[in-house]
Amino acid sequence: MKKIITAIALVSLAAVSLNAQQVDHRSMLMKDMRTMLEGMEQIQRGGFYSSKEDMKAGVKKLQGTLKTLESGEIKWILPKDQTYAFQFAQKTGRMLHLYSDDLIASVDSGRMDDALEDYNQLLKQCVSCHIRMRNW
């Protein structure tokens, strides 16, 4: 009887531990997603007010979270029934990096029309990923 109770206790403890770990990963990833949104908002605000510094700071904030999309950590929030989800998230991360680097180059060279197009491409990447992953 003691062995059964001990086994049940160990299984319960392992399940609770796994669930807590999943919640921790999920909250960390959701925090990174909010930071990405803040970065996009800062880029947009900088564009509206012709503030190159704000645009660059927004790109830096966005790029600081892109490692999340490229790492295995993102698997904790991706749909399990979509086999392509992880590869798609990684590709989205690479594209966000590419367009944000180009946005910085456009801002530095004073080509604000190109910077606006880069922002548009960044936004398209975000929306595309959210549509596919959240089944909107």
Structural class based on helices, strands and sheet pairing: mainly alpha
Number of strands: 0
Q: What string, H for helix and E for strand, traces the elements in order?
A: HHHHH
Radius of gyration from the alpha-carbon trace, in angstroms: 20 Å
Distance between the termini: 51 Å
Give me the number of helical elements: 5
Helix content: over 70%
Shape: elongated
Give the low-pLDDT segments. Answer: 16-22
- Overall average pLDDT: 82
- Give the DSSP E fraction (strand runs of 2 or more residues): under 5%
Main β-sheet description: none
Can you characterise this structure?
- The chain is mostly helical.
- The chain is elongated and about 75 Å long.
- It contains five helices and no strands.
Brief write-up:
The chain is an all-alpha fold. The protein has five helices and no strands. Helix 1 packs antiparallel against helix 5.
Q: What characteristics describe this protein?
A:
about 140 residues; mainly alpha; 5 helices
What topology emerges from the helices and strands here?
Blueprint: H1 2-48, H2 52-63, H3 66-70, H4 85-108, H5 112-134
Helix pairs in contact: 1-2, 1-5, 2-4, 4-5
